[in-house]
Design a protein that fits this description.
Creatine Amidinohydrolase, Chain A, domain 1; Creatin/AminoP/Spt16_N; 28 strands; metal-binding; 18 helices; alpha+beta; six-stranded mixed β-sheet; protease; Creatine Amidinohydrolase; single chain
Length: 590
């Protein structure tokens, strides 16, 4: 079927059941950001492949609500499908629910699949619709009956990490979790989010592209822990090891029945990370509404994880140095496209010990494509690089010893004054963020503002957040902390790894984003309390050919020169003579 035919089929099912609007979210029963193919419902229904968006369908209108990262991509991918782009004014807000409440008649019926919506989101959808006198049907799955070639759920085996990598055994993590449950007066706790499950059990998988996780739930009580997973993914040795750690194994599909059979008790649930269907099974029980304790635990890396991460940054920095040397010496002499560029970068990373895969699809945006923050080259859009213009490369690697994420912009030739000004302002913002020293208790939105100020001073801005948490050989986007404008009430703690990635985008021309990962660490004690600073973890040169020095203060130049000196000293022992000479020039003091 074409996407227009799929839309017609959905509308046909809506008409049969007297449903006036149907909502399709971008999610799965684990409320994941990145999805297994089985749950890529929006891509199947509409052709839109971005990682954030929601479809809302009526008999007269079908819209994709998404944020500014995807406006250009959505316009292109939705052409001819019957869907229209609706621009979100607030990222992730369910503005489609308000639109339906305002545009549908009273007593209309709105439906969605409650397996694919968190309880927190389901509540935000219900409230405006119920207030408008509408009915909300929450268990409606229209796609299964018409998605004839739907991919099966993945069955690839999982594997477990040694304590020498993770720094903490599963038994210890379970004990910490149970202690938090006691503090919260909760007798049971369901974990649905895949990265939390993976962290708790020191388990990794490959069910989701780029994220080393497996589809699973974990139920924890005072005296037992149960892993719900496809048993075929576990070897007999895995099951024995889990049992030795105090973890029973049950079938993935048994989670609903098990929850139904639990006695009335107090239950700790994270409504933002638990699908509405499972959450509603707890009706009649006392609900302790709280962020999964494991989410906070895994955000603060232990010393073993930190040491491994520093080593991983060395490996990634070596791969990136080889890549950028190859790029700058080859462009204009051989044919390089955005697609082949991304593949070549993967090859350089794959040469490093412990490399498992990419941490997300590489964003290689040449010239105008760089202005699309989440661009992914396709055969239709694949540009060929020339020895002029700006190239933005946002990429990352998954290693058994850590996760990386880095963005660099390089000039391939003939940079303009406008490009230099924009680039330098972004660099200034990145340095301000990385060099920030702040009191303990500071929140991410405050770091966001510090980083944006150099751009604000020149009446410039960017539509995405400044930074996100990064997992340890886990998801490249990790909560609970984030550096963006939202008033997320999570303090920045020592041991957190976060990106700092300001940008500036001129649609149809170029995009600029410069990104490093930083580690929060105690800086000093003062009469005014403890202060925290960042250790920059990423090791890769920053293109100085694009800098307008008149826009930098001496403190910015000093920071950049010190950073480049560190990059050279740490990477040089792993490079050959030609690579050392090249890197020495790229990291020369300005």
């Amino acid at each position: 079927m074409t996407h227009a035919e799929k839309l017609a089929a959905i509308r046909g099912l809506m008409k049969q059941q007297d449903i006036d609007a149907y909502i399709i979210p971008s999610s799965d029963p684990h409320i994941s950001e990145y999805l297994p193919d089985h749950y890529k419902c929006i891509a199947w229904a509409s052709g839109f492949t971005g990682s954030a968006g929601t479809l809302a369908i009526t008999q007269s209108f079908a819209g994709l609500w998404t944020d500014s990262r995807y406006f250009v991509q959505a316009r292109e991918q939705l052409a001819g499908t019957g869907y229209e782009l609706v621009k979100l004014t607030v990222q992730t807000a369910p503005e489609y629910a308000n639109w339906l409440a305002e545009n549908l008649p009273s007593e209309a019926v709105v439906a969605f699949d409650d397996r694919l919506v968190s309880e927190s989101l389901a509540k935000a959808i219900r409230n405006p619709l119920l207030s408008a006198g509408m009915d909300v049907w929450e268990g409606i799955d229209f796609l299964t009956s018409i998605w004839f070639d739907r991919p099966a759920l993945p069955k690839r085996p999982v594997y477990f990490l040694e304590e020498t990598l993770t720094g903490e055994a599963t038994e210890s993590k379970l004990n910490r979790l149970r202690a938090e449950m006691v503090k919260s007066r909760a007798m049971a706790h369901l974990i649905s989010s895949l990265d939390d499950v993976a962290w708790l059990l020191n388990m990794r998988g490959s069910d989701v592209l780029c994220n080393p996780v497996a589809l699973a739930f974990v139920l924890v009580t005072a005296d037992r822990a149960v892993l719900f997973i496809d048993r075929e993914k576990l070897s007999s040795q895995d099951r024995t090891s889990l049992e030795a750690s105090g973890v029973q194994v049950s079938d993935y599909g048994r989670v609903e029945d098990t929850l139904n059979q639990l006695p009335a008790t107090s239950f700790l649930l994270d409504s933002r990370r638990t699908c509405s269907r499972l959450y509603k099974l707890m009706a009649g029980k006392e609900i302790v509404e709280k962020t999964n304790p494991t989410t906070h635990f895994k955000a603060v890396k232990n010393e073993v994880e930190i040491a491994h991460t520093r080593n991983t940054m060395l490996k990634d920095g070596v791969a990136l140095t080889k890549f950028f040397k190859w790029l700058t010496e080859t462009v204009g002499k051989e044919t390089i496209s955005e697609v082949s560029l991304a593949e070549r970068l993967r090859q350089f990373r794959a040469e490093q010990d412990g490399f498992v895969g990419e941490s997300f699809d590489t964003i290689a945006g040449y010239r105008a494509h760089g202005a699309l923050p989440h661009y992914k080259a396709t055969t239709a859009s694949n540009d060929t690089l020339q020895p002029n213009g700006l190239l933005l490369v946002d990429s990352g690697g998954q290693y058994r010893t850590g996760t990386t994420d880095i963005t660099r912009v390089v000039s391939l030739g003939n940079a303009t004054d406008a490009e230099r000004i924009d680039y330098t302002l972004v660099l200034r913002g990145m340095i301000e963020g990385c060099a920030a020293v702040f009191p303990k208790g500071t929140r991410g939105y405050q770091i966001d503002a510090i980083t944006r100020k150099p751009l604000w001073d020149e009446l410039r801005n960017y539509g995405h957040g400044t930074g996100h948490g990064v997992g340890f050989f886990l998801n490249v986007h990790e909560g609970p902390h984030t550096f963006n404008a939202a008033a997320v009430d999570v303090p920045i703690e020592p041991g957190m790894i976060t990106s700092i990635e300001p940008g500036l985008y001129r649609e149809g021309k170029y995009g600029i984003r410069i990104e490093n990962l930083v580690l929060s660490m105690l800086h000093t004690d003062t009469l005014f309390g403890q202060f925290i600073a960042f250790e920059t973890l990423t090791l890769c040169y920053i293109d100085t050919l694009l800098i307008d020095k008149s826009l930098l203060d001496s403190k910015h130049i000093d920071w950049l020169n010190a950073y480049h000196a560190t990059v050279y000293v740490k990477l040089a022992p792993y490079l050959d003579e030609g690579e050392k000479h090249w890197l020495a020039k790229k990291t020369a003091a300005v």
